């Protein structure tokens, strides 16, 4: 069951240069097991919270954010240029779709991961957990 987070949610990078605020609870969250997420985070998978449009705001250090587009049309990946913390991803050319890395929230974001995507790329040295969550080869289908 999801916790009820206090909003706004806040978070930021390791060194404190970049801070953000999320004005409403995230709509959902999930695990990604693709090689890009592994390389970007240094872990076996990445968990992120998907936000409602218009609820994410950088409140400090926007000039310290470096953004990277991994492929044409791919989602922009953002990190702190000072400490390297991975902060969020967003749709190319806009902010309607933003996902925040769980580890950057100051407190419990209230939402829990509800799926695993790109499981065909999962690392062989850590088995996927038997957590009952749906698993998707490739990207999870977008909610209707």
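^ Assign residues to that structure.
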């Amino acid at each position: 069951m999801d916790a009820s987070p206090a909003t706004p949610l806040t978070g930021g990078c390791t060194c404190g240069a970049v801070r953000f605020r999320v004005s409403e609870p995230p709509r959902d969250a999930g695990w990604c097991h693709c090689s890009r997420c592994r390389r970007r985070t240094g872990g076996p998978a990445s968990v992120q919270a998907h936000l409602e449009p218009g609820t994410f705001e950088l409140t400090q250090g926007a000039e310290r954010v470096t953004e990277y587009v991994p492929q044409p049309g791919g989602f922009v990946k953002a990190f702190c240029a000072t400490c390297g913390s991975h902060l969020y991803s967003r749709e190319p050319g806009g902010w309607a779709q933003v996902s925040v890395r769980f580890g950057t929230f100051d407190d419990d974001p209230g939402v829990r991961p509800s799926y695993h995507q790109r499981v065909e790329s999962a690392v062989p040295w850590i088995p996927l957990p038997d957590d009952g969550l749906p698993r998707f080869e490739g990207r999870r289908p977008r909610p209707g």
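Helices lie at 35-41.
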